[in-house]
């Protein structure tokens, strides 16, 4: 069973929509810039309802890889995510998948890659923090990896990250998007930001087991899959 109708929920639906033993909670606060207490309260109440029920044998919650990064500023969103993770893990049925920046068709217009694509296409000025890193993963690979782990629960810890094997410098991500779109962005590079380390050892084992090609070349392939052809068409010969 699945709670939610967004990118993550849809990716897991084919395998888990009708599984009455497992509840996948793929709804709640998705905007990392959220600060409204009522938004956090709604997700907390929903999760309380799920955990108070006795009908399912497993409860799956999607946390954030940033919760495990001590260098990240502790925003209201991250503090909320940490509390929700702890609440799920306190239940013996609970399992948490921590996600980085998830990429897929559609989804939240405020995601990193949708933001970069829109700014580069429009020519609008934006800032890049030169020392910042982010980690991107295909939503289809999240579903493959998560499903593998759920099918083999004894082989993996109750909380783990589903992420690429390494995070990438923001300037490299922007240049990758420029390459895919076929045009340059209009941005300023600022000497700010921190690294984004993620423990992906368990994810690497899962990726090897189910054939997800994380690592070298993964990021550029991912950007090409979802954003190629969306830039300004290049002129053909003779025009």
**Which stretches are poorly predicted, pLDDT < 50 over at least 5 residues?**
232-239
CATH topology: Rossmann fold
Q: What does the largest sheet look like?
A: 5 strands, parallel
Helix content: 40-55%
Second rung of CATH, namely the architecture: 3-Layer(aba) Sandwich
- Counted beta strands: 11
**How many helices?**
8
How many structurally independent domains? 1
Mean pLDDT: 89
How is the largest sheet built, in terms of strand order? 1-2-3-4-9
- Structural class given helices, strands, pairing? alpha/beta
CATH superfamily: NAD(P)-binding Rossmann-like Domain
Instruction: Give the termini separation.
Output: 55 Å
Give the overall form: globular
Radius of gyration: 19 Å
User: What's the CATH class label?
Assistant: Alpha Beta
Topology:
Blueprint: E1 2-3, H1 7-16, E2 22-25, H2 37-52, E3 58-64, H3 76-89, E4 94-99, E5 101-103, H4 112-122, E6 126-129, E7 133-134, E8 136-138, H5 139-151, E9 159-161, E10 168-169, H6 170-181, E11 187-190, H7 201-210, H8 218-227
Parallel strand pairs: 1-2, 2-3, 3-4, 4-9, 5-8, 6-11
Antiparallel strand pairs: 7-10
Helix pairs in contact: 1-5, 2-3, 4-6, 5-7, 6-8
């Amino acid at each position: 069973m699945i709670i939610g109708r967004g990118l993550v929920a849809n990716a897991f639906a084919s395998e888990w929509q009708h599984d009455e033993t497992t509840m996948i909670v793929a709804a709640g606060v998705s905007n990392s810039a959220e600060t409204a207490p009522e938004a956090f309260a709604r997700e907390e109440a929903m999760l309380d309802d799920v955990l108070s029920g006795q009908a399912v044998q497993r409860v799956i919650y999607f946390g954030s890889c940033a919760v495990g990064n001590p260098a990240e500023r502790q925003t209201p969103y991250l503090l909320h995510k940490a509390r929700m993770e702890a609440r799920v893990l306190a239940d013996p049925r609970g399992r948490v998948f921590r996600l980085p920046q998830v990429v897929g068709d559609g989804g939240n217009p405020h995601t990193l890659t949708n933001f970069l694509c829109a700014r580069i296409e429009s020519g609008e000025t934006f800032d890049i923090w030169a020392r910042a890193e982010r980690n991107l993963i295909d939503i289809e690979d999240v579903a493959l990896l998560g499903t593998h782990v759920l099918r083999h629960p004894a082989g993996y810890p109750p909380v783990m990250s589903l992420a690429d094997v390494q995070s990438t410098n923001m300037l490299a991500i922007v240049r990758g998007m420029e390459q895919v779109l076929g045009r340059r962005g209009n941005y300023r590079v600022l000497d700010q930001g921190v690294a984004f380390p993620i423990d992906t050892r368990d994810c690497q084992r899962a990726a090897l087991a189910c054939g997800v090609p994380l690592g070298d070349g993964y990021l550029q392939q991912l950007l090409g899959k979802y954003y190629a052809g969306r830039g300004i068409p290049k002129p053909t010969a003779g025009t």
